[in-house]
Amino acid sequence: MTLYGVELVRVADAEEAARVIADELVAAARAGQSIVLTGGTTPGHAYKLAAEAEPDWSGAALWWGDERSVPSEDERSNFRLARESLLAGLSAQPREVHRIRGELGAEAAAAEYDAELDGARLDLVLLGVGTDGHTASLFPGQPTLDERSRRAIRAEAKLDPFVERVTLTVPVLCSAPEVLFLVTGEPKAEAVERAFGRPPDRGTPASMVRSAGGRTRLVADAAAASHLDA
Asked: Which fold has domain 7-229?
């Protein structure tokens, strides 16, 4: 099968996927890069492994690809996940931590983050893929996919109807020289095939995100990548 703009790194299971991502994060932290983090169980495990392997992140800068409009203490917060799984395990904190302040409300938090991103260079963007093909908080068929001037915007999620979100836009996600997707589990297999085995399509936002001038890789376990064999 043809893969559209992505290099497949196929691994056995979620544990191996987390270790591969942890190695990438450690290398980026040691290189003093600006890293965009994502949410989710497997990324959370990768963050823990990365902190154990390299507890000094003093050269790195951290950003987030998206966030829910909730306080940082909320269990749904992507920042809370990173704080508990990554930051809490470090002996030296990152030189910069750019949290999306979801508690401000989605519109205000997006405006603040958009301004904060002005002039920023992102080196590594870590993303997941939802069962509907969304990535960050860019959802199928939504106007957010067409935004080309702002860097961060408010987003609505049908998966989480009572919580608005803030997301980086397509051009910002594509601006990094390294874009890294992490996907595990059989429930994601169909979305993975649509996102990486077919041409870009607004019905599958993950298919629209590729590094504009660098490398895009998909780290997927055997279950998530199973439909790519067809």
From this structure: Rossmann fold (3.40.50)
Instruction: State the Cα torsion 129-134-137-143 to the nearest 10°.
Output: 160
CB of 35 closer than 8 Å to CB of 121: no
pLDDT at 213: 95
Specify burial of residue 73 (Cβ count, 10 A radius: 0-12, 13-18, 19+).
exposed
Which tens digits make up the pLDDT trace of 81-90? 999 999 999 9
Positions of the chain with pLDDT under 50:
none
User: Which two tokens mark 226?
Assistant: 């199973």
Residue 175 near residue 63, CB atoms below 8 Å: no
> What pLDDT, in 10s, does the model give residues 25-38?
999 999 999 999 99
Alpha carbon 77 to its chain centroid, in Å, reads 14
Tokens matching residue 141: 């068929």
Q: How far is CA 87 from the centre of its chain?
A: 17
Q: What residue spans define the domains of the chain?
A: 7-229
The helix/strand/coil state of 103 is helix
Provide the token pair at 148.
Answer: 């080309």
Q: What is the pLDDT of residues 38-49, one digit of tens each?
A: 999 999 999 999
Rg of the chain taking only CA atoms, in angstroms: 16
Q: Report how far residue 64's alpha carbon sits from residue 110's, in angstroms, rounded to the nearest whole number.
A: 12
pTM of the shown model? 0.97
CA dist 6 and 21 (Å) reads 16
